[in-house]
């Protein structure tokens, strides 16, 4: 195997880089669920750009609209001026996503990333309620800017702020006490008692599945109780659907299964459909109390992202074909992961839909499996406060055969770490030749 030239990265790029340390390869091209290095080695991608590539790499059904748009010299950068691309996205989002779900939200384009969506949600919640505090949950992750970091649980991320993080309180997430119900009696009591020393917050922010926090998935009953608690006390409910949304857990919004109607919703990552920077903050119309220009940003009108987002909605959300594939592949994924769990004491299944993984009692195991998987041609990351979870997040368009290929690699990697005497040796990573076909991402039929 040729050693890639990484000199310029190591000498010039900041030490903050992380994923490249786990995957020491130089990638060049990508199609569907595969990435290819500069010397042609193929990797099955069970990472999907941290959830930004729900429809696979360079999805041909989306790429053709992007190429046509760019080739026609249409507006690329527009701030918040009106454009044809933005109009088509808003109309499509209303017709295919909001209206069928009986959801009435104003749509704000706050900036290019998930943390922009969260910062906007926190800011409008405080503006509308006149209150300062926001309640978040143990092991939550909501972003890396100061406001979103204040409602994030990870101590290492929080320490990077270099300043105290204010106006947030932490409550136990569902199952935080290992099987004991984490109910809301404490919050209910303190919010009702003027002598508790705790003010009623502006909002509660929650992930239905904690993507970075260890793939814990909240029960629907817990989520409904949380919403009821917020309604009783006039506290706004924010659902951070940056990673779990856009179909990742089965339906377009991760909160649909629980029947929630959040006051504010944060979307990013795969909302553009193609990996282009884009985020949305959705809010009930009465919460849209901004003065013109009171909250803005330069990259809140990236029209190529509007184009691919519209194409993704029309291609994959006009019918239920994609949802059916997600359900089938999620079952296949769970079955595959159970092969690891069945042979490993203390391992357990985590997550929901195609945001699923295995938690290990030994916190060193997941990282070793990740490394062994990379050696065998699979990209997979870890999750959790101690990186104790192997996190599987393939494209939603993945086929049965592609899922089976990736799972075989993952099971073998796990066996090599957990049961080395029974494991096969690391497989040779396929190299692209003239006879090797690169399969594009599949469009919904």
UniProtKB/TrEMBL annotation:
Domain of life: Bacteria
InterPro entries: Aminotrans_3, Aminotrans_3_PPA_site, Dat, Ectoine_EctB, PyrdxlP-dep_Trfase, PyrdxlP-dep_Trfase_major, PyrdxlP-dep_Trfase_small
GO molecular function, one term: pyridoxal phosphate binding
Cofactors (names): pyridoxal 5'-phosphate
Top EC class of this enzyme: transferase
Region (Disordered): 424-445
GO process terms (BP): ectoine biosynthetic process
Entry keyword set: Aminotransferase, Pyridoxal phosphate, Transferase
Pathway: Amine and polyamine biosynthesis; ectoine biosynthesis; L-ectoine from L-aspartate 4-semialdehyde: step 1/3
A Pfam match: Aminotran_3
UniProt EC number: 2.6.1.76
Entry's family note: Belongs to the class-III pyridoxal-phosphate-dependent aminotransferase family.
Protein name per its UniProtKB record: Diaminobutyrate--2-oxoglutarate transaminase
């Amino acid at each position: 195997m040729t050693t890639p030239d990484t000199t310029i990265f190591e000498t010039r790029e900041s030490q903050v880089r992380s994923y490249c340390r786990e995957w020491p390869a130089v990638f060049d091209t990508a199609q569907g669920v595969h990435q290819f290095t500069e010397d042609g080695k193929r990797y099955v991608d069970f990472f999907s750009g941290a959830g930004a590539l729900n429809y696979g790499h360079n999805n041909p059904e989306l790429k053709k609209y992007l190429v046509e748009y760019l080739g026609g010299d249409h507006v690329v950068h527009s701030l918040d001026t009106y454009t044809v691309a933005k109009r088509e996205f808003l109309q499509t989002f209303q017709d295919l996503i909001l209206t069928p779900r009986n959801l009435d939200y104003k749509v704000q384009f706050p900036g290019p990333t998930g943390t922009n969506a969260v910062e906007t949600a926190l800011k409008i919640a405080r503006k509308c309620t006149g209150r300062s505090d926001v309640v978040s949950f143990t092991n939550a992750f909501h972003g890396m800017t100061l406001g979103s970091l204040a409602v994030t649980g990870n101590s290492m991320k929080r320490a990077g702020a270099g300043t105290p993080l204010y106006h947030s309180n932490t409550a136990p997430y569902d199952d935080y006490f290992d099987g004991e119900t984490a109910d809301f009696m404490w919050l209910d009591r303190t919010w009702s008692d003027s002598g508790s020393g705790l003010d009623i917050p502006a909002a509660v922010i929650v992930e239905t599945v904690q993507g970075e926090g260890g793939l814990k998935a909240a029960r629907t009953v817990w989520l409904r109780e949380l919403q009821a608690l917020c309604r009783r006390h006039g506290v706004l409910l924010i659902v951070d659907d940056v990673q779990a949304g856009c179909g990742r857990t089965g339906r377009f919004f991760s909160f649909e299964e629980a029947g929630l109607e959040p006051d504010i919703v944060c979307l990013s990552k795969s909302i553009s459909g193609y990996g282009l920077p884009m985020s949305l903050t959705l809010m009930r119309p009465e919460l849209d109390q901004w003065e013109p220009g009171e909250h803005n940003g330069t990259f809140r009108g990236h029209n190529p992202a509007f184009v691919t987002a519209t194409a993704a909605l029309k291609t994959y959300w006009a019918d239920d074909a994609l949802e059916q594939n997600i359900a089938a592949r999620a079952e296949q994924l769970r079955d595959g992961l159970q092969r690891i769990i069945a042979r490993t004491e203390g391992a357990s299944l985590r997550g929901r839909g195609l945001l699923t993984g295995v938690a290990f009692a030994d916190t060193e195991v997941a990282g070793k499996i990740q490394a062994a998987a990379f050696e065998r041609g699979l990209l997979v990351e870890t999750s959790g406060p101690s990186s104790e979870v192997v996190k599987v997040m393939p494209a939603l368009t993945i086929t049965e055969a592609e899922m089976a290929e990736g799972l075989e690699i993952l099971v073998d990697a796990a066996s090599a770490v957990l049961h080395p005497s029974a494991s096969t040796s690391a497989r040779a990573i396929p190299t692209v030749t003239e006879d090797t076909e690169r399969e594009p991402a599949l469009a919904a039929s």
